[in-house]
Amino acid sequence: MQEQFAFMEENIPLRRLPDRVFFTFFLGGMAKALVEKIGNYIKSLYGISAQLRPPDHLHVSLQHVGDFPRLKSKYIWAACRAAEAVSSKPFTVSLDRALSFTGRPGRYPCVLCGGENPATFELHQRLAVAMRKYGLKAGFEFNPHMTLFYAPISVPLCPIKPISFEVDEFFLIHSKLGQTKYETLGRWPLRG
Prior knowledge:
Elements: E1 19-26, H1 31-46, E2 59-68, H2 73-84, E3 91-100, E4 108-113, H3 118-133, E5 145-151, E6 158-167, E7 169-176, E8 181-189
């Protein structure tokens, strides 16, 4: 991992919408097609015409690093050091229900959640400890989920046939809010 981030110089103009930086892991393999199928099914079931999240954006967020009017290399450096300090084995995630979270009126996130995913919680907690060690804010509360789409109505809890996928790495992502663009700032394999 590089030590300096020349692309994040202080003279970059402020954006109207902030730049978001977060740790995550992505949906892998055949599970993408299953998630798309479930998303379309839920949309048709409730008459929702919202657009599904792009397949390459399907993820479970682990920790929020921050929202910034412009990226600052010191936060990225600290986040990368924290990630390097985390050790975890690869694990399987299972998502078994869909529902809407509370959102802005007319824009409710419809998500997939999982029941028992202890390894996901463990990785989240280890990242939180490491982030705080490097001076970053980190939360210990966690509700792992994957956003399918944003809808004008709220979708009630709906059990689904479980979707399982392997997680063998996690990422630090720069999201340009409002542009549906993700840039990978770092990735770390899970080796235990």
